[in-house]
Amino acid sequence: MPNYAAVNIHEEGSQVIELWDEAREAIAAVIPELGNNLYRFTVSGRPVIQPPAHLPDFWQDPFVPFQYGIPILYPPNRIKNGTFTFRGRQYRLPLNEPDNHLHGEICSRVWEVLAYGASEEAGAYVTCRFRYTDHPEIVSYFPHELVFEVTYRLYEGALIMESSIVNEGKDEAPFAYGLHPYFPIFVEDGEAVVLQVPAAREWPVTSEAFVTGEPARTAYGEQLSEGVDLRDYPISGCSLIELAADDRVCRIGMTARGYTIAYRIDPGFPFLVLFRPHWASAFSLEPYTYVTDAFNLPYAHDLTGAKGIGPGETLSFANRLWIEH
Fold it and tell me: So where does this one cross the membrane (predicted)?
């Protein structure tokens, strides 16, 4: 009997691709028609990713698509007034907050399913694609021919997320990519939940993650490297961390439950936003290619991660998520 399976099902009115690893009792579920969000992942019945209570919740509020699962962000976080300049071109993005553009639109749009399947060699997988040129209303304010392909792969109990972004246009495009996974933390039960992050430096930020100064080594960054109890992290609080180059694994330890969520972040994501939402008992570790609103900051781009993706260029990323006992 094969260990792996990928099946196309309908759940609460939506098309869902489920990935199965029978030997390790791991199940992941992806909803391509809403941002290609991997909204559920469990291993041996233990939740690793925080899903919404019901799938229709995704459609009932414009903010819900980036409040559960693993939203895919382009650009990540906020752009002040929705405007910035890159290579002499001014961009005006629609405001979905009173004064800001937040998290982009690909997390709430339909993605095309290219392939799904399973084998002992490849595990269970699904690959989806998003083309900007299929969405003229986005191209009207972001005139670039970017193509995103994301593969979720369940293999040996681990969830691997492989992202590839190619610029098929003739102009360099501003590049700002991020992910927003939500991890259930159960702090309402009084359980100690220990977060470890390989922090190199911390950026000072506002409660909306806007940068207010240059990065530095901080006492909190040193504490993160050793481990902090998330029960003490403020609700709706956020931090912006620059990750150490030689260690890319973050861990959330569920001490009373006897397991740890481990998250290996690709070196292409130098920055990590920590965020504790008020709408769920969850915690988010958000890998970004740049700091919030980097194109509007008065700092060197090699410091902030602000950069472009040139014509014909492809940028690739691979993150891995698993449970340790």
Answer: none
